[in-house]
Specification:
Structural class: mainly beta
Number of helices: 4
Shape: globular
Strand content: 35-45%
Oligomer: single chain
Length: 378
């Protein structure tokens, strides 16, 4: 088991700890990972962790930001992989169609721009796109979001991953967008490179369609003494606040009420004392008894589609790697062919390494793969 090194956020080495009771890492391709380690209370790391904040923990090639500790019979230290720092910043509403200085619409370019802007005040924070995924689709958010959520959701659609790597010798925080490789490798129990295999399927969170309440667009005030705004389908989902002279105004258009268009076909206006809810449906690809819909919290179509995209019918294969070493034979995001057989059920498919669990403890060392289908489709 490698020693554990503790640094501060300025990359100054504070302590080297050889007395590690256990260390458990969960690393993810396009998400935040975790660390949990235990140490004797008599070890030097206990004093360092309990007296200092903003700490970096390093074990071999693995890095984490210390987020919590618990001292009872032993010291337990908890951490998150360095991309957790992305959850500590937010980014305002944006539309890439309005980012006229973007060199291209590649999702890697967009995401690195957002992260770069969010950490513009940190001189030693750099960004790099290590991919070359072509896309001409615009990307946007209508409300302020955590940078970590924007990055994860934006990259997930293109099967890309991200990480924040700490370059300790050069004292840099480095955000990277990256992709795995397709390996000429067949992994299975029969090939003796995967053991303790489990297969799971779960439909409880799956919906292919959904309803959301569309946020109405405010067009400002309309003076009831003037001409009624014209009809047209482009009016759909918009409203005016009615301005009316209390003494001479018309009772048909009360002051402070709303002129609202909920007519999708003709764009006709109607007067409402309160703004109505405009319910919209996002259609799925299934029909009949197979079409399941749910309520979504997003206020825009983009937000609702993002929420719906997470309601997956999950199919997951897990297993402990045998004669396969993370960082040597495979990396996060790599794709290889996996053969699974449970009873009379047999499956052969390309799987992406979406995560890996690595642990060291007394008499027990191991790695466990978390795999998902390429493109994660039902």
């Amino acid at each position: 088991m490698n020693d554990i090194r503790i640094y501060d956020y300025e990359f100054n080495l504070l302590h080297i700890e050889p007395d590690v009771l256990s260390a458990y890492w969960i690393l993810n391709y396009n998400d935040i990972g975790t660390f949990e380690g235990t140490f004797p209370l008599s070890s030097g790391i206990a004093d360092v962790v309990m007296k200092n904040k903003y700490l970096i923990l390093v074990q071999g090639e693995h890095q984490a930001l210390v987020t919590a500790y618990l001292a009872d019979k032993v010291l337990t230290v908890y951490g998150k992989t360095p991309n957790w720092i992305l959850s500590r910043r937010t980014y305002p509403a944006f539309k890439t169609s309005e980012m006229t200085d973007l060199p291209d619409l590649k999702i890697g370019t967009i995401v690195t721009r957002i992260v770069s802007d969010a950490f513009a005040d940190v001189e030693n924070f750099t960004c790099a796109d290590l991919t070359n995924v072509e896309t001409e689709e615009h990307f946007w958010r209508n409300t302020r979001n955590a940078v970590s959520d924007i990055v994860k959701e934006g990259l997930n659609e293109y099967s890309l991953g991200h990480r924040v790597r700490l370059d300790i010798p050069n004292k840099k925080w480095i955000f990277e967008v990256y992709a795995g490789e397709e390996l000429p490798l067949i992994v299975s129990e029969a090939n003796r490179n995967l053991t303790k295999v489990s297969v799971s399927d779960d439909a409880q969170n799956f919906f292919d369609a959904g309803w959301y309440c569309r946020e109405l667009e405010d067009k400002g005030e309309w003076d009831a003494s003037g001409t009624l705004p014209g009809k047209g389908p482009e009016n759909y989902g918009t409203y005016y606040t009615i301005k009316n002279d209390e003494e001479t105004g018309s009772k048909k258009y009360p002051n402070g009420s709303y002129l609202v268009c909920t007519d999708k076909d003709f764009g006709a206006w109607r007067v409402c004392s309160e703004l109505p809810e405009l319910e919209e449906k996002i259609l799925g690809s299934l029909s009949g008894i197979y079409s399941w819909d749910t309520s979504l919290s997003g206020a825009t179509e983009a937000e609702a589609k993002t929420e719906l995209s997470k309601k997956l019918w999950s199919h997951e294969v897990k297993g402990e790697a045998y004669h396969l070493k993370y960082g040597k034979e495979y990396h996060l995001g790599d794709i290889f062919r996996v053969q699974v057989q449970k009873g009379t059920f047999a499956e052969t498919a390309l799987k992406t390494v979406s995560g890996v669990e690595i642990w060291w403890e007394s008499g027990n060392i191991g790695e466990k793969l978390k795999l998902k289908e390429d493109n994660n489709v039902i």
